[in-house]
Amino acid sequence: MKFKKILCPTDFSDPAAKALKTAASLALDYSSELLVVNVVEPIPTVSGADSLPLNYLQQYLRGVESAAKQRLKELVAKVVPAKIKVHPLILTGQAALQIVDLADKKQVDLMVIATHGQTGLKRWVFGSVTERVLKLTSRPVLIIQASPKKR
Question: What residues make up the domain containing 14?
Answer without folding.
Answer: 5-145
